[in-house]
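Ligand: zinc ion. Inputs:
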Amino acid sequence: MPSHATEIPTADGIRLGVAAVCMAFFTAGACAAPAPRLIVAISVDQFSADLFAAYRPLFRSGLRRLSGGVVYPSGYQSHAGTETCPGHSTILTGDHPARTGIIANDWIDQSVERADKALYCVEDRLQPRSADGRYRVTADNLKVPTLGDRLKARDPASRVVAVAGKDRAAVMLGGHNIDVAWFWDGRAYVTLPQAAAPPPPIVEAVNARAAKLVAQPRMPSLPAACLSRAVAVPVGAASVGTLRKAAAGDYKAFRTSLAFDQATTDIAIGMLRSLRLGRGTSIDLLAIGLSATDYVGHTYGTDGAEMCAQVLSVDGNVGRILAALDATRVPYVVVLTADHGGLDLPERNARRGFLQAARPRDALQPAVIGRQLADEFRLPGPVLYGVGAFGDIYVARELPVSLRAQVLARARDLYLADPQVETVFTAEELAAVPAPTRPVTEWSLAERYRASFDATRSGDLLVVPRPYITPIPLEHGYVASHGSPWNYDRRVPILFYGAGITPFEQSLPVETVDILPTLAALIGLPLAAGEVDGRCLDLDPGPVDSCDAARH
Ligand code: ZN
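Predicted complex:
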């Protein structure tokens, strides 16, 4: 048992033993940890279980403190569609995407009046994205309540605050009744609804600092612990693996800089202080989405100097959040996890001997296969829709009913014949798959896709990539990705820390859908049997079962 096993975080960052805490919080009688008044949920975008394991020995700040709490080093985003919006939708709802309805970042809605038919997960489908790319951000596509929604249903005085680098992270963590939201819109942190009112001073200051950094980028410095990872790997005409200075005026580069998560953290801490979260009469929720790790992963891969510097920076930002929480003297609980894992770029994986590592062939794009089908069946107009080469593929709804089954069968055969395709499921097959009863580590591919399947939103075909096939082409400056049903994209750490939590570590395959029922039990929020997909995790290895309240 580690020496900190009886310690809990309290005011001013002082870690007290249980006896001292009893003296501080209780005058007499039974001794128990104070009930949390503030729940803090941190999502680190693309923070895979592999990254957590690889960098754990180097953590010195917040991630080191959380590593001394309850640690599930290999939790699961169980579903197949391992993207940001679905992943975030599981964390505070307790439900897989099949129930949240968030099957992907974008899915096809053939009733949308624009050529690509793609609907973004937090886009208002009644006011679809206009030509200039602006859309109204909404939680309307999320079919279930979040922890924040449940808190406010019980006590309207509970406050729900969401701060994130991405709108979809803020919305999916916060839910339908967010009191305060701030997220980066590509140029500045903005709020919900995108109101004209001037932002508070902390947001103005962060936005001004970001604009200055974009105008006058600095050469990033590489931590000494990352020096050995600074090896250039050629990708096309460029290379990744070593740090470089961004071009002046490059707002996209801001998202891969260490300044991005620092800015999100600054605003989150600013909201914690200015709104006096946890210090009212009700339990509050602060949801924080640190998005830069994902942009670094996409732009540079997961194993270079860039990611090393980024992960160590996350450690520091989480440390600042914990220090700010300590200073409030409020009993708090922190949960930290990720929306999905990630895979390194094919070029570096190929160097390691994974010669099958590749990006999707152009021939797999739905438009290309759709053209072949149109020729074969002598059909006008688009035949297939899809957001990418893999995942949900939709047959055009204008297709004559008499031809539909034949076109679907032929499309399936064309996909199955491709060497990059593992298998193909039809919507009918997935709708008939029973709910899995085995641990998530043992789920079949069909069970993983079933957890991502929504009959009203999913494709007619689900195309499964082979392992180590990166699901996106080399575009928008992205060299690597996630999004597959394979475990490098599904495994994420799940860490609990704070009031009432006794440290332990287990390698059990728990799921991100278990987070909501676990937190609900901690704060006495009732859930009916079967109301959510997840189960309560007992955060006390001793005689006190933290799930008792949930089970009775
Ligand atoms: Zn993500």
